[in-house]
């Protein structure tokens, strides 16, 4: 009620402001048609599988379709940016900002806007994403962006933003870039190229309703009631280019339909399968559908914007609340169990995790690189415990590179995190290089919690948390401190004893020799012990909260049971 009252007061104030102050010599210019539209959309979701959990609902939304060139030139700003503006969300009725879209950083150089956002243009970040995925960013011309703006400073999660990308110097559609956001603050892109990998018209029968359709592997965690298996079929109607004369005569009605097909087999597709394109054998039964179409499209002007907000005063507030409401229905009424959030799969080629095309880092230097169509571009922010553990690991790796005379490369799945290289200062040429690629920041506290290198590798395999180019070199780098090997009678440190006592017996029983001291504890023992206790406390609280709410994970996939899952990989536990 308070939100509704505040929104109503704000709209009345905006209407009075527009009535008294905006008319005048510049009014015609202010309200002249622009390369931007307000869309009043109808969105429909339907779940078809499993049959006992079928569910469907429809709701209205407000969205903007804006030319990125016009948006970033501030030619779309209304009432000096107060009613609508680009560059921030504070002190605006509606607004858009670069930091909310695509990657948080750019190779062009990140600059602050003073509000915690990025001033790198959305179009420049879009070009960079295309190039990261092997496309020719130089072909990028005009772009329509279909998205939901902020409202009264509140920025929703924007589940789907669509970038319609046209040929430079022309009006031909080249790419449709789907930017997907989930409720965990993560982002993923699918780059769909017009005329490449599209479904055959004869099989889809969509000539009169949709201009393009693609089917591709699912690769991002959106709903907690689905795993990441299966395929999407996406059908779109693309508007004419922003400068096209067709806009004057053609009704602008963007339309998007997404079908999620279940996997046809229980096994997860390999990385090559994910990128090679689906066959009829791999596309399973239709599981979910989602459709968005514009019932009404009007130019983005002050009068039209105030009218749309008056008709839908709460539409831009309700995305997250609507998600929670229908999640409650699916979980408690329809009895669907929850899949835990997996780490995003990176957008970078040659990264080394499943779903990434290149098979080795050497491919980064090849002239011909395979193009990918998907990848993660936004990760959760690093927490304080993860930041502490990262600093401990980085200092340890720098020291071990010197001691062993090896090179060590630490590469994150998040493309905004710089690649770390630890090299020896010795003039002697190094012969070995350890490459560690990790999926998420939780990699660092996991190294602190695992008793030794063998346990680190075990949980890495079980959770797909990190990959190394040489397990033998990894074991050398993370070897126990001198004097703690087999046959050495050294009392176990209290931190190592604490570490072992908090882990399942099945997990710590192999290898048979656990070193009495942990390699990462040197100089950090007391603080490491505190971090270990805090991480385990977090797992306990998560389990307690879910138990208290009578919420259910898919059996065996509970986040706090990752150590038991790792133990199942041990001989005799499979």
Query: How much of the polypeptide forms β-strand, as a percent range?
Result: 15-25%
Total beta strand runs: 18
| Quaternary organisation of the protein chains | single chain
Biggest sheet architecture: 11 strands, antiparallel
Helix content estimate: 25-40%
Structural class computed from helices and strand pairing:
alpha+beta
Total count of helical runs of at least 4 residues: 16
What is the terminal-to-terminal distance?
55 Å
Strand order of the largest sheet: 10-11-12-13-1-2-5-7-8-9-14
Computed CA radius of gyration, to the nearest angstrom: 26 Å
Q: SSE layout and pairings?
A:
Layout lengths: L1 H20 L5 H4 L5 E12 L7 E13 H5 L11 E3 L7 E3 L25 H11 L7 E8 L2 E2 L8 E8 L5 E9 L5 E7 L7 H4 L7 E6 L13 E7 L17 E9 L7 H6 L6 E17 L2 H10 L7 H15 L40 E5 L5 H21 L2 E6 L7 E3 L10 E6 L4 H7 L3 H11 L2 E3 L2 H7 L16 H8 L3 H4 L16 H24 L13 H6 L7
Parallel strand pairs: 3-4, 15-17
Antiparallel strand pairs: 1-2, 1-13, 2-5, 4-6, 5-7, 7-8, 8-9, 9-14, 10-11, 11-12, 12-13, 15-16, 17-18
Protein name: DUF1365-domain-containing protein
Organism: Lentinus tigrinus ALCF2SS1-6
Pfam families: DUF1365 (PF07103)
Give your account of this protein's structure:
- It holds the Pfam family DUF1365.
- This protein is of the alpha+beta class and 574 residues long.
- It folds into 2 domains: 2-333, no CATH class; 381-567, no CATH class.
- The chain has 16 helices and 18 strands.
- The protein has helices spanning 2-21, 27-30, 68-72, 122-132, 201-204, 271-276, 302-311, 319-333, 384-404, 443-449, 453-463, 471-477, 494-501, 505-508, 525-548, 562-567; strands spanning 36-47, 55-67, 84-86, 94-96, 140-147, 150-151, 160-167, 173-181, 187-193, 212-217, 231-237, 255-263, 283-299, 374-378, 407-412, 420-422, 433-438, 466-468.
- The strands form 3 sheets. Strands 10-11-12-13-1-2-5-7-8-9-14 form an 11-stranded antiparallel sheet.
- A hairpin with a 5-residue loop joins β8 and β9 (187-193).
- It is globular and about 85 Å long.
- The model is unreliable at 1-5, 18-29, 106-117, 267-274 and 353-369 (pLDDT under 50).
């Amino acid at each position: 009620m308070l939100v509704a009252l505040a929104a109503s007061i704000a709209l009345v104030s905006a209407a009075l402001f527009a009535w008294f102050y905006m008319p005048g010599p510049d009014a015609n210019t202010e309200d002249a048609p622009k390369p931007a539209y307000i869309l009043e959309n109808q969105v429909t979701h339907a779940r078809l599988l499993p049959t006992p959990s079928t569910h469907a609902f429809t709701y209205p939304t407000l969205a903007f379709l804006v030319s990125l060139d016009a948006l970033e030139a501030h030619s779309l700003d209304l009432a000096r940016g107060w009613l609508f503006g680009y560059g921030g969300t504070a002190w605006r009725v509606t607004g858009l900002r670069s930091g909310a879209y695509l990657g948080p950083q750019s190779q062009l150089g990140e600059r602050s806007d003073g509000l915690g956002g990025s001033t790198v243009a959305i179009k420049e970040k879009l070009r960079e994403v295309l190039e990261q995925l092997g496309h020719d960013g130089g072909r990028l011309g005009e772009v329509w962006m279909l998205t939901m703006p902020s409202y009264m400073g509140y920025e929703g999660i924007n589940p789907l933003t669509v970038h319609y990308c046209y040929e430079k110097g022309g009006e031909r559609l080249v790419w449709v870039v789907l930017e997907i956001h989930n409720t965990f603050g993560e982002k993923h892109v699918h780059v769909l190229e017009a005329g490449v990998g599209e479904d055959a018209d004869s099989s889809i029968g969509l000539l009169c309703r949709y201009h393009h359709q693609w089917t591709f592997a699912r690769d991002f965690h959106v709903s907690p009631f689905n795993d990441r298996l299966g395929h999407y079929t996406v059908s779109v109607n693309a508007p004419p280019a922003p400068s096209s004369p067709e806009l004057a005569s053609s009704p602008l009605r963007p339309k998007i339909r997404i079908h999620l097909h279940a996997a046809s087999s229980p096994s997860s597709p390999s990385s090559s399968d994910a990128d090679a394109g689906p066959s009829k054998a791999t596309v399973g039964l239709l599981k979910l559908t989602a459709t968005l179409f514009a019932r009404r499209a009007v130019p983005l002007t002050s009068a039209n914007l105030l009218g749309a907000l008056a008709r839908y005063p709460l539409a831009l507030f309700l995305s997250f609340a609507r998600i929670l409401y229908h999640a409650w229905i699916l979980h408690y009424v329809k009895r669907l169990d929850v899949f835990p959030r997996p780490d995003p799969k990176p957008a970078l080629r040659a990264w080394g995790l499943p779903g990434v095309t290149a098979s080795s880092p050497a491919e980064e230097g090849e002239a011909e690189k395979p193009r990918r169509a998907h990848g993660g571009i936004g990760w959760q922010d690093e927490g304080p415990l993860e930041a502490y553990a990262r600093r401990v690991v980085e200092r340890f790796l720098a020291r071990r590179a010197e001691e062993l005379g090896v090179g060590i490369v630490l590469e994150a799945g998040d493309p905004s995190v710089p690649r770390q290289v630890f090299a020896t200062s010795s003039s002697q040429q190094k012969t070995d290089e350890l490459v560690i690629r990790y999926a998420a920041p939780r990699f660092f506290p996991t190294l602190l919690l695992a008793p030794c290198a063998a346990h680190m590798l075990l949980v890495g395999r079980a959770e797909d948390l990190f990959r190394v180019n040489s397990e033998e070199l990894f074991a050398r780098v993370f070897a126990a401190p001198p004097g703690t090997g087999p046959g050495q009678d050294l009392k176990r440190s209290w931190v190592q004893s604490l570490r072992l006592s908090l882990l399942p017996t099945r997990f710590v029983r192999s290898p048979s020799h656990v070193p009495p001291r942990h390699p990462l504890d040197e100089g950090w023992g007391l603080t490491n012990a505190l971090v270990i206790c805090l991480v385990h406390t977090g797992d306990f609280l998560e389990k307690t909260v879910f138990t208290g709410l009578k919420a259910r994970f898919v059996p065996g996939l509970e986040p706090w049971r990752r150590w038991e899952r790792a133990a199942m990989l041990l001989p005799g536990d499979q």
